[in-house]
Structures are given as structure tokens and as C-alpha cells.
Amino acid sequence: MFEGTRKKVFWMTDAIQHSAVRKQYEDILNIQKQEGNSLNIYLRKILEYAICNVPFYEQISTPELHKFPVMSKITYKEQGQRCRSREYLENKKLYIASTSGSTGTPLIVYQDANKKARMRADLIAAHEAVGWNLGDHYIFIRNWVSNYKQSTLKNIAQNVVNISVTEFGEEKKEWLCLHLQKKTGSIIFGYASSVCDFLNYIRKKKINARELKVKLIICDSDELTSVNRKLLEEAFGCIVINRYDNEENGLLAISSPYKDTLMVNYPSIYVELLKLDSDEHVEPGEMGRVVVTDLFNRAMPLIRYDIGDLAISPDPAGKIRTFSSLNGRRADCIYSTDGKIISAVAISSITEIFDTIMRYQLIQISKTCFEFHYIGEISERNMLELSNRLHTALGSKAEIRYIEEYNIPLEKSGKAKTIVNAVKKEKNRNGESYSI
């Protein structure tokens, strides 16, 4: 009822604040129309700014990206204020983005007002493209820890109902069904695992998901497989979008309707994919480390920042605009018996054909020992097929123990981790832990 009013109020408030978000929003749309012809200018500007204002980069002679080192979270933490702009050190109005550290090293990143406005504009433009307009009512399912909690007044202003994954049991799922019946045309936004868990509940209760009249589903933070996307679309009768972002940079990529490919947020982020064992660019179609350069944060420029994720793109180096797949965090990957890296996506492509497996977690105990924990039922025939598929991926010498569970706990972050590396680890050259 008040959706249109909320949208008008947002832009009126922005106008009072010198149209900070509006200017960024229009710039994003303009870049998209021009197919990114101005991006080299933005990249050069942030590199020039860093050389002149950030102590860590002052020895770099020319603003060429390859002359800047690839940075890890540990490097930023060790260097401290040397990675921050002198211009903003005394600024009391900076925004703080902190990573949880639930799947890696925690990090605090300082953002200036211009970057914050850009992040908001990125989301508005990307959401509008898939049908989510400012003011639309949405359900936000995530781990609502203390630093993410919002006031009741802010929730009302944003037209959002927050649900914590730690409380998303059958009672809360029943409540959500009733709420969606009352608030038709709502959007569901949350962890892919939680949204799929909601679908499993609906199926178990024999509820017609289409009668809930959900407008749009957007999943982020953990893996949304192609099979699960199609199952959600068929069940709810709406578009299902995959969103990829982080606290430090904001929106990184987002999928288009009915597609698995994600479009990189190239108006605001420059992306490189680097080899797993060196800082060379990968070939198109090769899995690599996601390394981003933030084009708009001057308070603490994140240049060639290795965010710890793995992805594949069909695009050549220097022109990465799409991800054909997101392959999870490198720290979470497991390894075959002959040392090949195995991502969560590789395992999901094996398990997703078995629709009686409600949830699973593959744990690597040692170089050759694995445990496959699962909720659901697996027939003798399917167990043989699953075992054959897993051995093809993990190696013929892999010893796999199958354990049926009634519950597989979520991570502290509230996400459902499908693969876990429990092998003894050692430090790499960046100080990060990887399996041996």
C-alpha cells in the first residue's frame, strides 16, 4: 500500500542530502549504456589517488594495475593505517564494514560517504533490473548477529521483516507461510540454503507454493545450484536470482532472470581471476582466485584485493564481465587423493540428481578419508551411484563413510556449508591456512 510512498520518500531524502545516491545511480546506468567505456578512467583515478595518498603505495611509480601487489586480509591487518588514505584518517564520518571472519580472517574496512552512496546505488540499479523496486515488501532471512541488527523503525521504513536462520524452525516457517498469504507480492531474500530449506518445508506440508504469490526470490551468501534455482522457480512460479556480494565492496555480481551466469558489477568493481598458485591471470574457463579493485572507496582503497573466493569466467583477462560459476571459498575447498582441488560446486553437481537427499556435508578427514553426512533417504541403488560419482571426483583410493543424520548444524555465520576441510593445515606465503 505504501510502497510507492517509501520510494518517493527515499529519493526526496536523498535530494536533501545533495542527491548523493541519485548521482551514483545515474552514473551506473550511463556506464551500462556505454558498455563501460569510461571504466579505464575510473581505474586510473583510484590508482593515482592511492599512490598519492596511501603510504603503503607511495613507492609505486606509475598507476598501472600490474605494478600493485595482490593483497590479502592478513596484509591489510598487518599494515594497518598504512593502507588507509591520509586524507580520511581524521574523518569522523567514515562507515565501517567488518567481515565476520566465519570462513576466513576478519577484517575492518573504512568507507567514505561517496563509496557508501555508490553501494546503495549499485543495489538499486541491480534490483530494479530484476523487478525489485524501492519500497517493495521483503522478507530478509540471514544470521542477525548484533552488528547487523536493525531498529524496528528502520525495518518499517524499509518495509522489511527480518528472520534469523537460528530461529527458522517449523514454527517460523509456518508463520512465514501465513505472512506471505497476507502480504501477496512479497520478495524473499536470504541465504540460498535457508530458502531451499523453506521449500522443503512447503513440500513436506503439501502447501502449494504458488498460492503464496511470491514476487521474486533473491539468494546470496552461499551456493545456489542450477537445479535448486529451477526447483524454486517451478515451485513458486517466480524469478529466482543469485546475488554475490561482500561487506567490504558491496555488490560483486548478480544473475539475470532464468540464467545461472552472473553479471559482474563492472561499473563499480574491477575484477581479475588469478591462478591458484601464482598471481598470473587464468585462461577463460579456468578456475581462479577472485581479486577485486574497488573503484570508489578512497578512505581505504582496496586494490587487487584477494577476497578468498574462487570463480570461473568465460571472459579474457582485463575484460571480465561475467562469472559462469562461483566455486566457493578457497579455504573451504577439499582435495582429491591425487591433490586436485575440489570445490563445493563440483560436489553439488554430483549430489543434486539425488532428490531424496535433503541436506548434506562432505568432510575431508585426511588425504584419503572422507565422511558424507546427509539428511534424507538414499536407496541401495542410489547409494551405489552416489559412491561411483564421488569416487570419480575424489579418486578411486578415496575411503568414504556415509552417515545418516537428523540434523546438520549451520556454521556460526548461519550458512550451510556443504564441504568441510578437516585436514591438518599449514600456512601459505600469504599467511593463510590451506590443507596439506
TrEMBL record:
<dbReference type="GO" id="GO:0016874">
    <property type="term" value="F:ligase activity"/>
</dbReference>
<dbReference type="InterPro" id="IPR053158">
    <property type="entry name" value="CapK_Type1_Caps_Biosynth"/>
</dbReference>
<keyword id="KW-0436">Ligase</keyword>
<dbReference type="InterPro" id="IPR042099">
    <property type="entry name" value="ANL_N_sf"/>
</dbReference>
<protein>
    <submittedName>
        <fullName>Phenylacetate--CoA ligase family protein</fullName>
    </submittedName>
</protein>
